[in-house]
Amino acid sequence: YWDQLSTPSGITPATSPRRAEGLLLGRLPLPMEPSLLSPLERLLEPPLRYKLMTIRHIPPVKPGTGMPHPYVGDCIQCHLMVGGPAAGSQFKTPYGAVLENLSRVRKLGPPILPTSRQP
């Protein structure tokens, strides 16, 4: 009976790392928040390696058809989407107009790296 009881801190061998961190810090971390062990995990896991590709042309993709290659990594929208509403046919919100004007001065969002990895 006494071995079935948890320790005074509430951490048992079956406790998940997220629950243990919540018991130690007094709160549960958010789902996307890095854990206490994240720096150690990043140090131990091997770096991602992708084969760099030379893009010779932009292949067109029609709506409803598959991509011309298997999906690998983050998509940076490198394909020409054929079809859909014509340019300028959709209503532009005032917020969209402000973003469009700001993007003419400086690129909004993170830079697109030559390795296709998002920062």
UniProtKB/TrEMBL annotation:
Keywords, sorted A to Z: Biomineralization, Heme, Iron, Membrane, Metal-binding, Transmembrane, Transmembrane helix
Alphabetized Pfam families for the sequence: MCR
Subcellular location: Membrane
Membrane topology, from the record: Single-pass membrane protein
Gene3D superfamilies linked to this entry: 2.30.42.60
Domain Magnetochrome: 59-84
Co-factor requirement: heme
Protein's UniProt keywords contain Membrane: yes
InterPro entries: MCR
Record carries keyword NAD: no
The protein's name in its UniProt record: Magnetosome protein MamT
Organism: alpha proteobacterium CC-2
